[in-house]
Each structure stands twice: as C-alpha cells, then as structure tokens.
Amino acid sequence: MSLFKGYIATDLFGAQGAYSYEDQLLIMEQTSVVIVDLLSTLLLLAIPCFISAKNSQGHEQENSLAMLAAISLLLLLFQPLASVIVISILGIVIATLSAKLAIILNKKHN
Questions:
Q1: Three-state DSSP state, 110
Q2: Which residue would you say has higher pLDDT here, 10 or 39?
Q3: Residue 27, pLDDT above cutoff 70
Q4: What per-residue confidence (pLDDT) applies to 92?
Q5: pLDDT digit string, tens, across residues 62-104
Q6: How far apart are CA 83 and CA 85, in angstroms?
C-alpha cells in the first residue's frame, strides 16, 4: 500500500511531497483508484481466458494463452506499448491459472 502512496505522491506533487491534509486525502483517493483499476484489469484478463479454456477440453492451456494474445493485440490499439507489456506479463500468470482451474473443473464434469 505504501508503494502505491509513494508513487502517487511523487507523481502528483513531485520531489517536494505532500504536506497538507487535502494532499494526503488526494493521495488516499488516488491509491484506492489504482487498486480498483488493478483488480478490474486482472478480472478482465481472467474471465475471458477462463471461458476460453473452459470451452475447450484437452487444449485449455493453448486456448487460454491464445485469448491472452488476442486481448494483448486489442490493447495495442488503445494503450501505450509499455502498459501492454506489463499487462501481458501479468496476463501470462492469470491465463495459466485460469487454464489450470478449467482443467480441474473439466475433469470433475467428465
């Protein structure tokens, strides 16, 4: 949490830092925005990767990673390259976990 606060304080106020109560409130508000954005990004990666993996029995891992590749290519239209690279690296973990979960659930239903 303090990592986000330090980054946001530097981003908003520069090296001089935030001293007033209003500045501290703004930092807390922006920190919560960053956390909500991070969680929603992870969900927006996990849900399509899981659905893709769940619908393909036997090829869960490949389809989950293919969905991640499609999402990453779509993100290139709207986001800077550095953001897409970071999201793709996080997405590899998310896609792999989604595929493992789909494998477990597909075995239970068979």
A1: coil
A2: 39
A3: yes
A4: 92
A5: 999 999 999 999 989 988 888 888 888 989 999 999 999 999 9
A6: 5
Identify the CA nearest to 63 among candidates 95, 35, 23: 95
Which of 46, 53, 54 has the alpha carbon at shortest distance from 71?
46
Q: How far apart are CA 108 and CA 90, in angstroms?
A: 28
Contact 88, 72 (CB under 8 A): yes
Residue with tokens 């709207």: 78
Tokens of 33: 């925005």
Local structure of residue 1 (DSSP, 8 states): -
CA distance 25 to 95: 36
Q: Taking the CA atoms of the chain, what radius of gyration do you get in angstroms?
A: 18
- How is 13-77 classified by DSSP, letter by letter? HGGG---SHHHHHHHHHHHHHHHHHHHHHHHHHHHHHHHHHHTSTT-HHHHHHHHHHHHHHHHTT
> Residue with structure tokens 């986000």?
4
Rounded CA separation 79/74 (Å): 9
